[in-house]
Amino acid sequence: MKGMKSKSAKGFTLIELMIVVAIIGILAAIALPAYQDYTKKSRFSEVNTAVGALRTAVTICFQETNDLTECDAGAYGIILPTLPSENIATLTVADGVISATSDANSDSTTMTATPTAGTPLTWAVTGTCTTKNWCQD
């Protein structure tokens, strides 16, 4: 018996492996929804960019005409991008009010930027993007 060495077990037990799998499952359950929201928000950033450019154009139109009803798409340099784009479904400008809807990849989220005449021109942003905290003021 002196010449026999005890064989030590190497590797992981089944319970240790089950614990690791459970931890990975919990982390995935938390990370996946956060990642999906992040990708939708990044797709919505194209809407923010387009609306931001149109806000500048409407502001210039208002400075030139002092009348928001003159500030429509196609007038005074207010040019809409070609639609549909990859992430924008609709985009309109009427009487200075800019309305945009994203495509289904970001849940068809809406954004409306409404100007208030004054010096300076002020903007109120509404839509479903406000509840998701995706809008830029």
UniProtKB/TrEMBL annotation:
Keywords: Fimbrium, Membrane, Methylation, Transmembrane, Transmembrane helix
Lineage: superkingdom: Bacteria
GO biological process: cell adhesion; type IV pilus-dependent motility
Record carries keyword Cell cycle: no
Gene Ontology cellular component list: type IV pilus
Keyword Transmembrane part of the UniProt annotation: yes
Protein family (similarity comment): Belongs to the N-Me-Phe pilin family.
Record protein name field: Pilus assembly protein TapA
